[in-house]
Amino acid sequence: MTDHRIFHNALFNTASWVVAVLLSLVFLPYIVGRLGADGYGVLVLVLSVIGYFAVLDLNLGDAVIKYVAQYHAEGKMGKVNEVVGSVMLLYLALGCAAGVTVLLLSGELVTHLLDIKPELRPAALFAFRVGGAGILLTMISSALAAIPNGVNRYDITSKATMALGLFTSLGTVGLLYLGAGLRGVVLLNLAVSVAGIAFYVAIGKRLLPGLALRPVLSLASLGTVLRYGLFSLMSRLSTMLQFQGVRLVAGAVLGVASVTYYVVPFNLVSRAMAVTFRVGGVIFPVISALQGKRDFDSVARLYLKASRLIFAISTALCLPLFLFGGRFLALWMGESFRAQTGSVLLLLTASLYIDTCTNIPSNVLNGLGMPKVCGFFAMANAGINLALVYPLSRWLNIDGIALAFLAGHVLVAPAFVAYVTKRVLNLSLVRLFQEVYLLPAAAGLVTALPFLFLLRLPFTGVAAVLGAMLATSLLYLAVSCGMGVFSREERAFVVQYFRPGRKERAAGALEEPP
Q1: Using 50, 70 and 90 to split pLDDT, how confident is the model at 49?
Q2: Which of 68, 380, 107, 62 is nearest to 228 (CA)?
Q3: Where are the domains of the chain?
Q4: How far is the C-alpha of 430 from the C-alpha of 359, rounded, in Å?
Q5: Phi-psi region of 152 (alpha: psi -120 to 50; beta: other; left: phi over 0)
Q6: Residues 19-31: pLDDT tens digits?
């Protein structure tokens, strides 16, 4: 697996996230305006129900990626078919059960459990019933989308995600303009899910000519993916428990306003840091493929290199938030809001900055088939956070909630990174510090010095603060190049990749990825 392919995947995986954010910013006001607050609320609730039932997928999408990558590298196409077929069979059973459950409960949801206006109830009932079918389609689609990712073609799934997202947004706007209303929007989402499945079926067969996309019962393969998926689900559930539990405690102890003061800065930082997880996630199938080839020396080299690059990217993203995040909040949300959340923003930025250090170790463990370790460390993090959030919130109010979040990361992340480095990969912690953290951190300190003087200057608008934040990130990248954070070969590679006329950038054949 070449650096070219990894970079290409990372670029498109990030681009799909950026496009999703932009589509939301551009079209959401019109959609909400046409549906109305109540109508859009029903749509969100339907999608939320689908999302909550989607936890029934047991995180087997990651299992498909892992074992497709490993067995494909080993040349075991029969095992690939067993894994994919077993997951499809399980998803058909779980999806049908979940869909029937939503169908049976939809009347109770609309008339008693949810406060929906009487005139909206018929459309809401229709939406929930259609949404029940959407659960099955979502689960099948996630299994099929994992196949291209398993053969390291994140660019394909990213392009599909962008195309389907754009079609959904434009179609929604068009239907609302024509007066279709909530029913039309829900049916459009269902149709897009069907189109996505058809696309992934065609792409899967083209990428893997021997792929047999039919449900099969292989107890051995089903047991393998279930063990992987259930342990992987531990990390997912601990994250949900941590984030949702903290918000509930905040609302119960400090009042519902405190939830806003916590969630707004959290969303600001987490959306910025999402870039690092989109970039780092593409090494997951690469590690599995290297495991299939028994090339563990390459696993160790990729671990160190990817960890350094992710730490540098996260520094470029967090440094502006450390320096100018408070100013941005004041101009964006108001000075009174910043007074409530300025410290919260700094504590959350520090927490997620530390968390990015676990990005590559987590993907390496998952790629090697060790999600249990990730799950146990994630549960430890969530346990510390939830144990501290009540006493610290009583003592320090909203700052205490953010401090509890930071404490979990400070206590768990270093131990997790050390475990993966020494116990799993048999690498020296001194080498890890020297090759991964030393230069990116030093470049961050050098970059911060001139901007400390700018903190005394008045900023008259959001654009000025955003300009200062962008300048901070760009200067950091320039300083990093000068200090050797990015090697000469890496810099030359990026220049070559974006050179006009590069033939690989033309839509290239599926069978011969760039």
Answers
A1: low
A2: 62
A3: 1-221, 235-501
A4: 19
A5: left
A6: 877 887 678 778 8
